[in-house]
Design a protein that fits this description.
Length: 469
């Protein structure tokens, strides 16, 4: 005891003394925290959203297909999870990239005759957003840039800029069913461009790129030696008559990190199951890229093991009838919405070909009471209790986005309310006089074919020439 006290009382040499320089608390947020910015959340939180208490709120703003309860996962999907839980095999940790049998199932699901992949090419993630985060992080350094679509999913910017990576937009063309302006895309490329993000089918546009258009995108990437991050969370979610082409199936030369998951097609966004598929038949990605994907996946120690256990059965046994029924409901809503909104002076909807959304152009000159699309959307909530996301959320003003996953009758009613609102606020007094005959006399449950016959083609034909967002 005495020896221990003597040791504790020894004089510590001044050279070994750790001097504390702080005398007051000064805890600051990190660079990443200060630079992480979600444009959609930021815009919505600053909006004045006060619904009309006399009208039921209809939210056409939320990209969650489960909100209204009309779209539910197939029973086979539910049973697969029940079996995974009951088996007791999936309660612990596994490799951060996922169980091998689950990765094999994704590889089989994602492989095409021209782009076969194996379990070694798959990394399971906590949702597609996590997959995108890992892909951006592995390819780009602070100060570099990734090219993103405009209009586009705001999370790309959130994920990149929080890491000090810049985003540069390239334009999508509403006049050409939202195809990429390839000239604009090429002009955006510079020596600091680390990757191009291609979203197909598109959120927020609902567009589905043709094979020819995808091949032209790949030609540009090959010409400039830039890898692609393919956001394909809406893969196969296309309307009848449309064809979905996985980007990796069309190129042997361009290295592509394909991101997808269960979220949309399988109607389970809360299950947070996504994946990255590495498509690199020329071995352009160095071993460090594959190792980097693996080490980045270790930051969250992998996705839900329960859902991983269910994944082989979900991907193999979900019936085609389930997919078809979901698509048909969304397509019907798209047709109904387009039929109604295309008759509204001052609006120009762009008919989608897939995914769950429609973009609607607004000629703000026709609505002088409102300075921006945000003002118009706020007033629409206040007067009609219909909430759409303003185009500013997607870096594309003078538009708003509607979600097409609500029950059919609510979809019709929401569009009728939008029409009534626009007629009330249109600058043309003659248009306002149409309200009594074209709105209040309507039976909301009538067939679309019985709804107002006038068309809005003059505005839509001229809209893209007159108004450049």
């Amino acid at each position: 005891m005495i020896a221990r006290e003597d040791k504790m009382n020894e004089v510590v040499p001044k050279s070994k003394v750790i001097r504390r320089t702080r005398t007051t608390w000064n805890v600051s947020p990190s660079f990443m925290a200060k630079n992480t910015f979600n444009p959609i959340r930021s815009i919505i939180e600053t909006m004045n959203l006060s619904p009309n208490p006399d009208k039921k709120m209809i939210a056409l703003s939320i990209g969650d297909p489960t909100v209204f309860g009309n779209l539910r996962p197939a029973e086979t999907i539910i049973q697969a999870v029940i079996h995974a839980v009951s088996s007791g095999k999936y309660n612990g940790y596994t490799m951060s990239t996922g169980y091998e049998e689950a990765r094999e199932a994704v590889a089989k699901y994602s492989s095409t005759p021209t782009a076969p992949v194996s379990a070694q090419d798959v990394i399971l993630c906590s949702g597609c957003s996590c997959a995108l985060d890992i892909c951006i992080s592995v390819l780009a350094n602070p100060g570099q840039n990734v090219l993103v679509p405009r209009p586009g999913f705001g999370l790309y910017k959130t994920l990149a800029e929080g890491l000090g990576i810049k985003t540069k937009p390239y334009r999508l063309q509403p006049e050409n069913n939202w195809e990429i302006d390839l000239i604009d895309l090429e002009l955006a490329i510079d020596e600091q461009t680390a990757a191009i993000i291609v979203n197909n089918p598109s959120n927020p546009c609902g567009s589905v790129f043709s094979k020819t258009h995808l091949e032209r995108i790949l030609q540009l990437a090959e010409k400039h030696c830039i890898p692609i991050i393919a956001d394909e969370i809406y893969e196969h979610f296309v309307f009848p008559g449309q064809t979905y082409y996985p980007l990796a199936s069309l190129s042997e030369k361009v290295p592509i990190l394909s991101c997808s998951g269960l979220t949309k097609r399988f109607l389970v966004p809360g299950w947070r199951m996504g994946w990255i598929v590495i498509n690199d038949r020329q071995n352009i990605f160095t071993p460090e890229i594959r190792k980097g994907l693996q080490t980045l996946s270790q930051r969250i120690i992998g996705s839900s093991t329960i859902i991983q256990g269910a994944l082989p059965a979900i991907l193999a046994n979900t019936p085609q009838s389930f997919y078809d029924d979901t698509i048909n409901q969304v397509k019907e809503n798209a047709e109904v919405s387009y039929s109604i909104l295309s008759t509204v002076p001052g609006l120009c909807p762009v008919m989608p070909s897939g995914a769950m959304y429609m973009m609607v152009g607004v000629d703000m000159h026709k609505f002088p009471k409102f300075q921006t699309d945000l003002d118009l959307v706020e007033a629409l909530v206040t007067e009609q209790s219909v909430f759409c996301l303003p185009g500013k959320c997607f870096d594309f003003p003078n538009y708003f986005r509607i979600v097409l996953t609500v029950p059919g009758e609510l979809m019709k009613e929401a569009c009728f309310r939008i029409r009534e609102f626009c007629l009330l606020h249109h600058r043309n007094n003659q248009v306002k006089l149409q309200i009594d005959t074209s709105i209040h006399s309507l039976n909301y449950k009538k067939d679309i074919s019985a709804i107002i016959s006038e068309k809005n083609t003059d505005f839509c034909d001229n809209y893209y020439e007159e108004l450049e967002p």
